[in-house]
Structure formats: C-alpha cells, structure tokens
Amino acid sequence: MSSGGANSSNGSPRLAGPTTTRRRVADMMDSERSSNFSDVSDEEDNSNGNNGDHHHHYHHPVIRYWLLRSRMFFFSPETWLLKFGDTYSWFVTAVQSMRSGRHMWRRIFGGLLLLVFFSVFVKFSLMSGHVDLNGRREHGLFIVQTIKEDWAFAQKIVAESEASDAVKPLPVLEKFPIPEIWMKPNCDNYQKCISRPRNRIRTGTKTNGYLLVHANGGLNQMRTGICDMVAVAKIMNATLVLPSLDHESFWTDPSDFKDIFDWKHFIEVLNDDIEIVTSLPPQYAAIKPLHKAPVSWSKASYYRGEMVPLLNRHKVIKFTHTDSRLANNGLASSIQRLRCRANYEALRYTNEIEELGKILLNRLKKNNERYIALHLRYEKDMLAFTGCSHNLTAEEAEELRIMRYSVKHWKEKEIDSKEKRLQGGCPMSPREAALFLKAMGYPSTTTIYIVAGEIYGRNSMAAFRSEYPNVFTHTTLATEEELEPFKRYQNRLAALDYILALESDVFVYTYDGNMAKAVQGHRRFEGFRKTINPERQNFVKLIDLLDEGAIPWEMFSEEVKNLHANRVGAPYLRQSGESPRLEENFFANPFPGCVCNLSQERTSSLKSYQMSRRRVVLSR
C-alpha cells in the first residue's frame, strides 16, 4: 500500500497539527468522493508514526463530516465519535488484510466482535430510553434534529418565554393616599347612560319644515339653549339649521357657531337623531320665517300641539330665544338622553380652542400638581345685576347702580346690598372666597385658576392673593402670542375657562350662574368630580362671627367643614320644585336622565324578571 504524504494527489488532505482553517462541507464531500481504501492505509501508517496522537490531528473524512454535523447527535460526547472512527478505521484495515488470506479464522472472529460492538454503539446512541427536552422527558425513539430545526426550536422557547413574561403583572408603583380635600365623592354604582334607543334612530328624510334658532345670552347659556333646540327639533320632526349666536349681549362677541364649536362634529354626532343643515335650501331661502319666542320650560306637548301646526303651515320658523325653553322634568327618557348627547358629545370646541386648552391644562398640572378652578363671579355685570356693592367704594357702587338702571330687562332696580348678602344672594367677595378655601383645609401653596372675567373693584384681589399667591387666569397662564387670536372674543376665552374648570381637581363656584350650572352638570356626568357648592347664607354669618371675634379660627374652620360635608358633588336625584323656575336645572344635574344607578337598575331588572316569570306560571 502506498504511504503517500501530505501532498498526495489521491489521499485526503492531512493536517500536520491543530489549525483554525475550516473547509466547506461541500469541499469535504468532494474529497470524500475521490478517496479510496488506500487513503485509509495511509492514515494507518501516519498514525503509527505519530505515537497514537492522531485523535488530535487527523480523522477519517467521514468522521470529520460527522463532527461538523455533531448537532445531529447533540447528546453524544465527541470522544465516542472519535472512538467510533478509530474502530471504523480498524475494521477497514482488517478487511484489507483479509484479502491476503493470512489468519483467516482470527479475522472472521474479529469481524464478528466488531459487528457486536457496532450494534451496541448504535443502540446506545440512537435508541436512547429518554431525551431531556426543554425540561421534560419524552420516551421513545430519538429524532435527529438538523440545524434548521434547532433554530426553530430555539425560537419557540423564546416565544414561550416572552409570552410567559407578558402575563406577569407589572410591578405596581407605590401609591400614596389622596388627601381628603382632593378626594371625589363615592360614585361606584353610577355610570353614564345616553345610548340612543334603536327605535329612535332617524330612518327617513321627511321633515315638517326648517327650524332657525337664535341662541341668546353668554356662552354657557347659549350652549344649553342649543342642546334644548336639538331636542325640540326631534320632538317637532324639524330640520335644524346651524344655530346663530348672540352678538348683542354684555360682551358683544361677534363669534359665530363655527368660530367656537366644531360644526362638522356637531352634525355628524347627531346625524342619527335629527337632520342638521348649515343653511336653508334655495327653495326656502327667500321665505320670510315666522318669528316665535317659545314659552319657557315647556313640555313636549306644547311643541307638538302648538309649534308643529305652525311649522307645517309656514315651513320655516325662527325661535328668537333658546334659554330655558324646555322643561327640566316630565320628558321622555329618549329626549333627555338626546339633550345630553348634544351637550356632552356633539358640542365640542374648535381645534384651536381645544389645543390651547390642553396646553394651559398641562401648565397647571405640571409635576402632577392638583389645582382648584374657582368660579369667582365678582364681575361688573354680575355685581350690577345682583346689587351687591357692600365691599366696594361709593364711586364703584354708584357705577354699578347706573349700569343696573340702564339695562331694561333687569327687573330689580332698588337693592339693599347688605340685606341681600345676609340672604345668601350675593357672589362671594375675593376675601370671602379665600377664607372659605382656607377653612376647608386647602393650604396656601394650592394652585388656583380663576374662572371669570375681570374682577371688579380696586385691590379686590389683594386679600385673596395674600392667602393664595399661586393664582392664575387665562391671561397670566397663556403667552401673548397664544392669546392673540382670542383677545377680541370673550366667548372663546370663556370656552378656555370651561375646559380648565371641567378638568380641574376641584371646582368651586361662588354664585349660581349659567357657567356654574353647565360645568357642575358636566362634571357630574363625567363621574361626579369633586365640586363644592358653598352654602352662602350660613357661611357669611360665620364670617361675621369670626370678624367680630365671637368664635376662634378653629371653630370657624370646623363649622365650615361640617356645613359643606354633603355639598361636594355626590350623586343625588335632581330636585323638582313647585314651579319650573324654582326646580333644579336639568343641565346642572342630569341625574336622572343621563346618569344611571346600577344597583337600582339591577333591582328593577330583577323585579321585571320575577314578574314575567310569575305571569308565565299563572298562565299555565
């Protein structure tokens, strides 16, 4: 046999020592195809010449290929494969020797022993009794894995690990208890309920005519009036033309509906309730509309019985007033819910107003600070209307009196300011408001946002700022550039105040105006956010006792807290009165109508079920 060296053209390439050079499997296979048994004898000679260290220097090509593909036998030690290679080489050499005929019987016996050894090796390697796979034992035959299958298996393990991590609860950050002064009242059993009944969805386009409405008053009075007109249009089966706004009220704001509200959103949200158009169609544009001022606090029967016949006859009616033209109570639940859908979902401010509102809100709540929105109605028009001038100078009081007499529709002219204050009929002064907040437990570091126009009177805010220096208004909170588009438009500024009052941690209103009604009702609808309604009549008596030195501060504070323990915006049913004028406003408290008591709903459902079961039993 040849003993070819390292450069033999017929032999497999031999390694003279350890190397890091790797060959592609395809190259190895080519070499193996060109090998023959003489290569094996060459390896035997080389092995004898290297003192048995061939395990570390050279192996048969088949064994080298198996070593590279050792992943197929991931549980077999490499030394076993090497020994198997040695045995294989010995077996080939024995076969070669058998050709010479020497010692035939010994070689036959040796061959049989080799077969036995090989069988035991294969059984041990490929017929293992168990395989440890991903932490569990699987009995049966070993399935050879390729490298591709290993990758798929690894990906499966990673996916399972990620899925396991996904279901693990995130670590909960420690929550500090909310101080009682900021806690909202318990309302766990209450939720919004303004969904549209299926049988009330608008299906046809037939209309009795077109309804023009002129919303009168300030922003919040116009807002609630528009919502009432949506309900009235539904009652009358009328097409509502986009409302026009009041430009002649105290602020003489020239803004139109589209300047304050997102009119496209308004039409879209109410599309399944009523038809709304931006203007009269051409065939009706030339018709002179019938002008009517609906009777205040009217029920649905009034509009169906008196207004619908007029609409059928004239086809176009214009309502000149919208304030309080629909009853607070005694209406179908579908109509009450429609009023709330219009107010809390459809009437959204324009993007410009909403975006600036968000910016100002973020500034107030920086570092997660809480703030109070204080509706301080100590404004010139309100003081003139109520005649409350007891904290003002003589010149200021005279200015208010002149203004009151100049407004014809203000019926009350001669007013005793001090008497009216003791009756609880005056807005809180800035000093009274500061004493109220302090007595309720709010520290001097509290952030206060004033929801109001310009506060009337020289140095009126001095006493308030001495107690609460962190006072802001939209004028001081926004930059000049941000306020520039809003400066001439008081209703747009009022819309900003509305947003910040709605989103405040606590809302305190010092007089029952239209904004106080609108905001407190919206806060109730949004989950009974804390809203404090000062009991002015008894509160001013306590202040007078404190000023006279009749009670110490500690007693004053305790009495104020006790007086308002149940005046923080907790759920209660809207109160009816002897007349609509005296009962609680629907938009100030939309419960019942747009808020539901879940416990009562469940009880009612259970009773209905029991009654129906009883009828079934009796009918058998």
Q: Please state the overall shape, judged from the principal axes of the Cα atoms.
A: extended
Q: Which stretches of 5+ consecutive residues score pLDDT under 50?
A: 1-60, 65-76, 126-155, 161-174
Q: Could you give a short account of the major beta sheet?
A: 6 strands, parallel
Radius of gyration: 45 Å
CA distance, first residue to last residue: 109 Å
The amount of helix comes to 40-55%
Task: State which percent range the strand residues make up.
Answer: 5-15%
Overall mean pLDDT score?
Answer: 80
Q: Please work out how many helical segments DSSP would assign.
A: 26
User: What is the number of E strands?
Assistant: 15
Secondary-structure-based class equals alpha/beta
Oligomer: single chain
